[in-house]
Amino acid sequence: MTTHDSYASLRVPNYRRLILAYGTSTVAREAQIVVVGWQVYEQTRNPLALGLIGLAEALPFIAIALYAGHVADRANRKVIALAGTFGLLLSAVALWVFTIFHVRQVWPIYLVIFLSGIGRSFTRPAVTALSAELIPRELYSNAVAWRSSTWQFAAVFGPAAGGLLYGFAGAAFAYGTVCVFMAASIVAMAAIRHTARPAVTEEMTVGESLRIGLRFVWKEPVVLSAMTLDLFAVLFGGAVALLPIFARMLGAGPEGLGILRAAPAIGSFFTGVYLAHRPPFRRAGMTLFVSVAAFGICIIAFALSRNFYLSMIILTLSGVADQVSVVIRGTLIQTITPDNLLGRVSAVNQIFIGSSNEIGAFESGVAARLLGTVPSVIFGGAMTLVVVAIVVLSSPRLRELRELQ
Questions:
Q1: Quick one: three-class SS letters along 72-139?
Q2: Cys-Cys with 188: which of 20, 304, 311, 324 at CB 3.0–4.6 Å?
Q3: What integer pLDDT is reported at residue 1 of this predicted model?
Q4: What is the spatial distance between Cα 253 and Cα 265, in angstroms, rounded to a whole number?
Q5: Residue 206 DSSP SS3
Q6: 1 in a domain, yes or no?
């Protein structure tokens, strides 16, 4: 009988370096999100302005993601990840400069976020594909769990640090710290010693290359259903974008905003560590549906809460539910997808999931402006439950999915 090695992927030195690079860049980005959100809301007091932050990042993200996936399947993935992270570092430096020189308009911030979306578009599929390149295929589930847990740990530390640094030392110091963490990510990524697999050499146009990636997703109903489920859950459950408003409603400042922002990641982190220590789910499909439904219920409960500590607990539970779905979906994609398509399929997933966070933020801002903050979040949670019901009924293969190997 084979024993389950909970730390198998972390025993690979290059994968540890990738995890370090991924974690430090996530700390930087999550801290930056808190600082930018509080700055913009302080200057505008307009929920739509918070939504526009998400839209500014989503537009280039969607426009470039497929091409970025094509590049990740044809070029050195480590080089792409380094270049994208360097672009994110330049964006953080720009925000620091704006703060130092007391730029009061918000449009320069939107412009920088737009440009950072381009860097993130190239970085995400490259890191996902490089992760699969650094470890054996049988370790994918364990690697996804640890990579996701690393993200969640960084997403706990990042927002908390961003809020505390903003509250006690000011925005300029907070942005300076973001720059330091981005630079550390570049150093860790550069330390990876790995011979890249030969690039794809078949002659085809960029358009045909992208169509192959889209065609693969379309013909794999399990992958398509899982992506669709998460797309709409994140799209409608975007309460995080309105946290600056909820923080004020609950009587908290930027420090409290950082804690609320970190709460989902706290739940996700500990859940990810637990999942890394257990074998794969035996009923992965139904577990995915239950976890997304639980996420929607948490969003509704958060909207109704008027106590800071209760709100923090509810957001933590939402992170628990979200982490389960992340691990199942990530393992499913890496297990089913051939290595030479991972960049493109990761890019499709990036459009489905990654951009839906930002589009969800925009949707939340618009809905809050039209319906009010609390009703808009309740509506989003309810729509998440509706989406789960629709996908359960229309996706029998995902519903019957068992253990992922």
A1: HCCCCHHHHHHHHHHHHHHHHHHHHHHHHCCCCCCHHHHHHHHHHHHHHHHHHHHHHHHHHHHCCHHH
A2: 20
A3: 43
A4: 20
A5: helix
A6: no
Number of domains in the chain: 1
Strands (E), 256-327: none
Cα(220)–Cα(115) distance, integer angstroms: 33
Residues 6+ apart with CB under 8 A from 201: none
Cα distance between residue 90 and residue 179, in whole Å:
8
- How far apart CA 79 and CA 91 sit, in angstroms, is 19
Supply the pLDDT for residue 177: 94
Would you say residue 200 lies in a domain? no
290 vs 75, more confident:
290
For residue 364, the domain's CATH number is 1.20.1250.20
What number is the average pLDDT over the span 261-278?
A: 78
- Closest of 19, 251, 313 to residue 139, by C-alpha: 19
Query: d(Cα 340, Cα 338) in Å, to the nearest integer?
Result: 6
Residue 3 domain-assigned (yes or no): no
What pTM did the predictor assign? 0.66
Q: 275 lies in which domain range? A: 9-193+205-399
Whether residue 107 is contained in a domain is answered as yes
> Cβ(269)–Cβ(75) under 8 Å?
no
Rounded Cα distance between 283 and 17, Å, is 32
pLDDT (tens digit per residue) in 170-214 = 889 999 999 999 999 999 999 988 766 545 555 555 566 656 666
Q: Are 343 and 333 in contact (CB under 8 A)?
A: no
Q: What share of the chain is helix, strand, coil (3-state, %, to 5)?
A: 85, 0, 15
